[in-house]
Write a structure and sequence with these properties.
It is built from 3 helices and 2 strands; from the N terminus they run H-E-E-H-H. It has a two-stranded antiparallel ribbon with strand order 1-2. With about 80 residues, it is mostly helical. The protein has one domain (about 15-75). Strand 1 (about 25) and strand 2 form a beta hairpin. The protein is rod-shaped. Helix 2 packs antiparallel against helix 3 (about 65-75). Helix content is about 50%, strand content about 10%. Keywords: Membrane, Transmembrane, Transmembrane helix.
């Protein structure tokens, strides 16, 4: 579900993206309450990307002979 085009499942009214990014928000039409995991998933994906980058750099250093080239490419 795209947070930029979030529609209330109860009444179908569009909820603005800046409202849907809050940890808890209400539908402007029917006042239904929602909990958002936007920040948690953003932090999780950033951490996963960082770990993937570090792991790829470490694996490249082990498999490619001039490890300095791997560091230059990673940076």
């Amino acid at each position: 579900m795209d947070i930029n085009r979030f529609h209330c499942p109860g009444c179908g009214q569009r909820v603005e993206s800046w409202v849907a990014r809050r940890p808890e928000f209400h539908c402007p039409g029917c006042a239904q309450r929602f909990h958002s995991n936007y920040r948690r998933s953003l932090k999780r994906s950033a951490l996963f990307g960082l770990l993937f980058w570090i792991g790829g750099t470490a694996l490249g250093c082990l498999l490619i002979d001039p490890w300095q080239v791997v560091f230059v490419f990673a940076i």
